[in-house]
Amino acid sequence: MNAPIQFHFDFISPYGYFASLRIEDLAARHGRAVDWRAMLLGVSVLKVMGLKPLMDTPLKGAYTGRDVLRHAREHGLLMKRQPTDPVMNPLPCARAFAWVKQHQPEHAAALAHAIYGAYWGEGQDLSTPESLRKLALPDGLSAEAVADAAAGDEAAALLRAMVEASIKAGVFGSPTVVVDGEPFWGVDKLDQVERWLSRGGW
Amino acid sequence: MNAPIQFHFDFISPYGYFASLRIEDLAARHGRAVDWRAMLLGVSVLKVMGLKPLMDTPLKGAYTGRDVLRHAREHGLLMKRQPTDPVMNPLPCARAFAWVKQHQPEHAAALAHAIYGAYWGEGQDLSTPESLRKLALPDGLSAEAVADAAAGDEAAALLRAMVEASIKAGVFGSPTVVVDGEPFWGVDKLDQVERWLSRGGW
């Protein structure tokens, strides 16, 4: 069995949401599992790279809003939240994910899907640990437990370690897929990832 | 006959080079001509957007170098210049292009291909008007005339107008393809451009 492919994502990233809907089928077609990894654009983009937020960047912000909606329309994806809406604080969701990945790793992907679907698909507010109590979750996951964890120190420490590891691996954007050490940034790269997996690189 | 699709590019952009090799076939498949337009990343990225040069951006610079070489290998493209090599002053080439587009529009695409091939493919230095005298050009174009034009005020004014128009249209990256007012940024977007042309948008 080949190593899982890494899927690095930030919940505030609509492109991460789009890719999250395809990554498992893509991996499965090549006999791979997916290792889901939360990262924080606020750390990579703002602190390490010294850039401003994407949507606040002249020209690029306007283009990105248009591109996101175009992508959603092409693929028929539910997206009640607009790319121009204010960005939530991603820490409660990302901490909850890091905690579930540690304690219920078999449910980590399901939690990521639930959060992405609620935030981007349904336009729900998930910016506080409290708001996670209303999150609809599949069997095996408790919204109460997830919300409690999101407010705790352990989840914060787990997320910090995950984010530090992603920076150390050179990951800066959402989504980034890493196949056997080879990084691919952007939902537009998924077709190339598929070719890379088919050919075993080039 | 539908309107030409616009192809905005900077000669210092390897992704612009890659896309330049595909854009005419792509357009032709949909009964479109290509309107070639030089832009300057030094204006859009550095001045208007307030960002640093791509290759000087932490994490993103290293990734980009790797991604460029991976793209060239996948498509079997000649590229003697490395993405990490110092960036040339693009003004002489871009001014020469603007001048030829004005005075010999039927040869504008050929000049763009010649410059891209010499700079990225062969790794030649094209950073001064003088260096353009050695450029191999197809019939109908004179390297002497092109080099003289690149050093003149008219070419500078023509390029300035072209760059101002691209900024005004919201173009910030190379390559950007604009189809009937709809912008697509990046060589990774060419497949989506093709689908947009096939379906007439969505």
UniProtKB/TrEMBL annotation, chains A, B:
SUPFAM superfamilies: Thioredoxin-like. It catalyses: 2-hydroxychromene-2-carboxylate = (3E)-4-(2-hydroxyphenyl)-2-oxobut-3-enoate. Its EC number is 5.99.1.4. Gene3D superfamilies: Glutaredoxin. GO terms for molecular function: isomerase activity. It comes from the Bacteria. Belongs to the GST superfamily. NadH family. This is 2-hydroxychromene-2-carboxylate isomerase.
